[in-house]
Amino acid sequence: MAKSLLFTPLSHYKLAMTRRNHMTSNIVDVLLVGGGAMSTTLGMLLKELDPSLSISMVERLEKVAQESTDGWNNAGTGHAAYCELNYTSQNADGSTNIDKAVNINAAFEVSLQFWSYLVEKGLLPEPQQFINRVPHQSFVWGARNVEMLKSRHAAMSAHPAFREMQFTEDREKMTEWMPLIMKNRSGDEPLAATRIEHGSDVNFGAIARSMAAHLTTQEGFNVELSADVVDLQKQTDGTWKVTINQNGSHRDIHAKFVFLGAGGGALPLLQKSGIKEGKGYGGFPVSGQWLVCEKPELVEQHFAKVYGAAPIGAPPMSVPHLDTRIIDGKKAILFGPFAGFTTKFLKQGSVFDLMKSVRADNLGNMLSVGKNNMDLTKYLISEVRQSHKDRCDSLRNFFPDAQDKDWSLAYAGQRVQIIKKDPNGGGKLEFGTEAIAAEDGSIAALLGASPGASTTVNTMINILERCFADRVASDEWQTKLKEMVPSYGQSLVENTDLLLEVRARTLETLKLKP
Fold this sequence. Notes:
Layout: E1 17-19, E2 23-25, E3 27-33, H1 37-49, E4 55-58, E5 89-90, E6 96-97, H2 99-120, E7 131-133, E8 136-141, H3 143-157, E9 166-168, H4 171-177, H5 179-182, E10 191-196, E11 200-202, H6 204-215, E12 221-224, E13 227-234, E14 240-246, E15 249-260, H7 266-273, E16 282-293, H8 296-299, E17 305-307, E18 321-327, E19 330-340, H9 353-357, H10 363-372, H11 374-384, H12 388-398, E20 408-411, E21 415-421, E22 427-430, E23 433-437, E24 443-448, H13 456-467, H14 469-472, H15 475-484, H16 496-509
Parallel strand pairs: 3-4, 3-15, 4-12, 8-17, 15-24
Antiparallel strand pairs: 1-2, 5-6, 7-11, 8-10, 9-10, 13-14, 14-15, 16-19, 16-20, 16-21, 17-18, 18-19, 21-22, 23-24
Helix pairs in contact: 1-6, 1-13, 2-13, 2-16
Enzyme class: oxidoreductase
InterPro entries: FAD/NAD-bd_sf, MQO
Cofactor: FAD
């Protein structure tokens, strides 16, 4: 475990104070790079654990939470593995492996606990402003997929975390669950669906902005907007000198700990840091698009997040789904995602991002991934070439009566999938998230995509444990962590009684109870 650098003397630095919106220091305990879900969550955790910490957040855009965290830049699914078929897999004997689903479910419960704590403390607004109950469903057609879903339901419903999952092959019941999807669905093709009532639609942008708004009221917390990190240098005393370009003016910030939570922009920053733990990593950018319907008479007929099976040859993140979205009190229906390709690492990034990320230490891994993933490349090309009618034809697999004129195309946030060294040789493409930390705990970064923001709290607590080990071990921090996340220190995967206990509380507090 790395020892924390916090409270290491910095007496040889001259304290530099600059007047901006209010007094800010160029020397801080913690520097958060990026103003999205990850950085705001880490900032809230740290300020609750130790209000005396000096923390600065730098965000390259004019507002926080405008990239992947923004409500319209992601699907808003509270990923708990209730409906996402790609979170389970098939064992050699044909049975369903639910290990990944159980772990993701437990991680999401950690987020729900922390959000419940913040609501109870008045640090987040009323739950309906950022999270709403929307049932989570899986829906498949074809005999093979029906058998797969039946096997999945049998395995999952036997586990306490998923005991409330319902399964049906009855068309009348499915019409009750999802009338738009079943309306005028002809033929006698086998159909099946599962449903969990207490699924959620989450506005991660609203959560991040609410946390940032609270943090800016706290002494010792500062947000620098329109501030782009251009360099990171490790100093001889173990701290970091981070150079930012803010409105054309360069300035250095000295920090004892740096967190790179910049979404797709985290990889280039990790490379700038030069730490050995970041060697060999590359990025594969994938853009997302959605069909959106805001027609009231259709929106009111659909109340669920309905996930299907990914097409053959499609990557895991392209699982099609028809979702109820509730953003800033307004309902809409979203269908997708449709993948695309761009060389940008951020939605508001540069077309040169991918090229600039190529290094001697990751070139081989990236070439290997390109060679071994030709099917993915062909799939992305086919997605990019689709017309509006093509996309609406895909939608009609879910919603047979869909009319092209009722749907418009929206562009989601940019995702950068991880490319890393494969122990068996070459490189491999990862579709999850990965936290990387320096051996001395002075810097950490988060790479990757799904399940992303849903498991933010669990991921940030893991960062604390790796980079603030001595402080996490203290009685003071242990007590506070258990107050914020009552299950802290215990496994919700192993202790299912505890999982059900904390779930009862969060469903009540966050008003997710059916």
